[in-house]
Design goal:
alpha+beta, 6-stranded antiparallel sheet, 6 strands, about 40% helix, DUF3592 domain-containing protein
């Protein structure tokens, strides 16, 4: 039973490691950057040029993709979030419809927040991924360890 659990954990851990390698260790960086967001995030506006509504019958609520251009960064970005929340927080000015967002250029991450100041947060997804990655070696030891018969 212990080896089966080790194999299952190893599969998820290796998947997390491959994901982090392909994304340049984005989640590890976000763990650090979210502890002091005032230093790493800057307030911006996402000017919307396209909206795709997801009207899936399987989902409990509907979500939408909002595609736009960040005003300060001049790059394309998208937000996938609850349709009702996005509609409530969409504003309008002379340039068009926009969402108030925070952008971290170090990891190319956009956060949808309508606040004047971001609070430090714990990035749970990153912590879970790194806990799994740290379990790779103990799982390998458990799998290849000779059992006493």
């Amino acid at each position: 039973m212990r080896k089966l659990l080790a194999y299952i954990t190893l599969v998820f851990a290796i998947g997390g490691l491959i994901s982090e390698l392909t994304h340049n260790f984005r989640d590890l960086k976000l763990i650090y950057y979210n502890l002091d967001p005032a230093k790493y995030y800057e307030k911006d506006k996402l000017y919307i040029y396209k909206i795709e509504n997801n009207n899936s019958s399987n989902s409990s609520g509907s979500n939408s993709w909002y595609y736009g251009v960040l005003e300060k960064q001049k790059i394309n970005e998208n937000i996938y979030y609850s349709t009702s929340y996005l509609m409530e927080n969409t504003s309008l000015d002379t340039k068009g419809q926009y969402l108030k967002v925070w952008y971290c250029k170090n990891v190319n991450k956009t956060i949808l927040r309508d606040t004047n100041e971001l609070q430090p947060t714990i990035y749970i997804k990153g912590i879970i991924i790194y806990a799994l990655i740290l379990l790779i070696i103990p799982c390998l030891i458990s799998i290849f360890k000779k059992s006493k018969s």
